[in-house]
Model the fold of this input.
Amino acid sequence: IDMKSKIVPAIVISLCLCKTIFADGLIIIPQPGPLPTAFPLEVVYHHVDVKINGNVAETSVDQEFYNPTDYLLEGYYIFPIPKDAVIKNFSMIINGKETAAELLDAVKARRLYEDIVRQVRDPALLEYTNQGLFKVRVFPIEPRSSKKISIGYREILDSDNGMFEYIYPLNTEKFSAKSLKNVSINVSLKTNNDIKNIYSPTHIVDVVQKDNKDALISFEEEDIKPDTDFKLFYSTNNDDVGLSLLSYKEPGEEGYFFLTASPSFIVDSSSVDSKNITFVIDISGSMAGDKLKQAKRALTYCINNLNPGDGFDIIEFSTEAYSLFNNLERPDDLNIKKAAKFIEDMRAAGGTNIEQALEMAVKEKGRAGKAHLIVFITDGKPTIGETNDEALIKTVEEANREGKRIFTFGIGTEINTHLLDKITELTRAARAYISPDEDIELKISSFYDKVQSPVLTDLSLDVSSRIKIFKTYPKDLPDLFRGSSITVFGRYSGDGPASVTLSGYLKGAKKTDTVETEFTGDNDEYDFIPPIWASRRIGYLLDQIRLNGEQKEIIDEITELAREHGIVTPYTSYLIMEDEDYRIRQKGLARGFSTLPQLEELKVQSQAIYGYMKEKSGDKSIIASEELQGLNTATNFTETKQGSGKINYKDENGIPQNLSKLVKNIFGRAVYQNGKFWVDSGLQNQKNKNEKRIQFNSDEYFQLLKKKPETSQFLALGKNVRFYFEDTFYEIYE
Done:
């Protein structure tokens, strides 16, 4: 093929919030071509099927690549191998024909990457320095045609502190000229011991558990450009509650930990507690029509699915509050019939007496040692009795001596979010809002399914004395229910082996589950922990501002945490931009070290959304409540990006951008793309730095890569990067 038949694709690999270990299989056209700009092949679809038996994973991949050019191309399909992974039985089929792939060790792979960087002047592949790869020549790639590639491989999964990790390369954001029509990952997991914890920090997955040893995990999206590798963790044991803990720590700093606890999927009745539950429903005039009809159907579902040993009551309120039983009764046939008639007779009329309804609910006496849940459903603000927020909260606090948990459901937009949110915070419960176009019945019944069967209540976490844990989120542990799990993110000091014990109560008796683990934090695989912990901490602090007013110390902490960990939302971006703008004007920060662009339009936009936190009712108030709770309960990267769709803007070249897309995470800290430079957020905290300016693609550039291969993670970002590494400030420039 002559030179005119070749084209250079843009080989730009985005780092995800956690440091990726390897990338998708991709096709590289390594020689210069005739087109004025780089033009990558398009990835049409990406389908992955995984079968995990115990700790052996077999992965099958189908990809389709499309050549959108008028040129006949020749290239290489490469599949970088995860560091330290043992991959066996690697096979490849190109357009239906089995093809042999060449295995390059890490040294040969690095030479290939460096040669490509020198040729195409794109550093992206440097991210995979020190990793091997499979390589196969792909020719011909006909104009306006597709290539279907299938690969399969087998690997042994390692266990760390009882937690197995499976990673699949899904980072294709810059490899495709267009969004992928469809991306799917389906994992069939079968184990010898009971599956206890299934967790993905990178993607929102659907988990269907068939029994204690068999589960299906799936992820699927359409019209997207994936930018994060897929990570899946699972643990197995035959304990009543499975505990798993992972930790991450930078040298000389306090560490971060992640703990997850889950009971078996199927448990016998001896491992499930009964509960006390009071349903409190607003039947004021504003609930008339479909709202009340759906709420009544949801209540009917809940009472028909009570456990035999439960105690229950229903309280309706409008101008006054009325109780079905004036006590908690067992769900026998007679009481269920009474409840059904009580629900059927509900009619919407009158005002909203929240004070009387809540007082009546929290004063009901349940059986000692049983969790008492109150489900509070309303669509309005208090109009009868006490209407002042703080006075109502005080009333609930004084009456709720037994520590009942009040779960609130706000229907519509004319509700006092501050009141409902303060109630749930006070009682260590959760809040939910149901918009006018949502299904009330589905949302309430889905909640009830999750809390139907308590396994452990009044939980507490204890760690042996050599390790100190602090700033844990959730701040107060929720109860643990059958079919659910809890995830805890926190900070720790100290190092070494430790016993972690989760204590709680089942049927009035104290129960403990302990895991022997090690707080070492030396595994870069777990650098997903700091940003998710930061998201929870920031969500909690922002909620405190929203409900109790601003304090400078809290504002400063949120700003620093958000900048350091890359938690870029409309709320945090406003604080970061304000802080950096002020310090630039005061000569306390060099403009080249700022992380977010100083665009007035973007600042005004973020400030307006930050103002949502001051609203006590209406759409904006609900948005703020839901997004801050989303930050405070985040379990994966997607959930740390609350409200990111509202921080779009156009850069100086008129190109649409989104602030949350311009941040990556390397070695536990965020790096931002601001203009043509990538800027390490850590530079703002370093003083008296050694400085080195190195031109991209020069001999000195590759010498740095050879002497300090860890810098490849920064160098892979682009041709203009400012970063801090081992007491030196490096500036890479074109």
Observations:
- The two ends are 31 Å apart (CA to CA).
